[in-house]
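Final report, Chapter 2: Outcomes

The project's central promise was a pipeline that accepts a single protein chain and returns its three-dimensional structure in a standardized token representation, suitable for archiving and comparison. That pipeline is now operational. To close this chapter, we reproduce one record exactly as it appears in the project archive, with the input sequence first and the structure output second.
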Amino acid sequence: MEHTLQSERMLTLAGANEFLNPTDAAENPKDSLAPAFVESYKRMDYDGVYPTVMEGDWLSENAGALPPFIKPVGNTGFVDTFQVSGHTVAVVVYPAPGRGPFPTDEQVQWAEQTVKEQQGKSDLVVAVSHWSKAGEQKYLESASNLPDILLGGGPGPGLPEALANKGSTLWVRSFTKGRVLNKISLYDWPDRDSGRVWDLGRNVNADTVILNEKIQGDAEIEAMFHS
């Protein structure tokens, strides 16, 4: 089935461990790369980047003050709001997991309450998590007031697409090594009054873009990492 997107507007987001692996603190990451990371993400026009506190500290210590779209997330979550094609998109950034890779009960309660609040005033609720695949799966199976889309991360394999919450939540997970992008194409905005569910290939599509040799690099950005 062919689709024509109503708008070319893209909402570009990144979550935890985008710049450092959790073990990098003991492996002496190259501090000289931090300014190149910050500048390259500015040029790519990211809407929201939500690294761990460790990553945020590393970036700011080596690259100076962070641009406003880079917002480290610690034990407290928050909401970013964007306007896309005349619609309001709420991005609920979940707090860092409180029990190893798993959230605490209080964090899950915060997520449920915050998602519920945003459902009442937003056209689309997107959650960003790094609660691990196992933690996110348990959350999706047990919680109520789930987001329309869950962008997952943390320990565990990547996930191109999965449906949860009786088809009302699209769940995708990031892949390691920065070699794959998750791309979600929205063809119809959710209609909560009709009890809308996602129908892959009809009202939404989830793809992965593999950053291999077929994707031509940007010479200016590459130069920043080799100067």
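Archive annotation: The helical segments are 34-43, 53-63, 105-119, 133-142, 219-224.
This record, like all others produced under the grant, will remain available to the consortium after the project formally closes.
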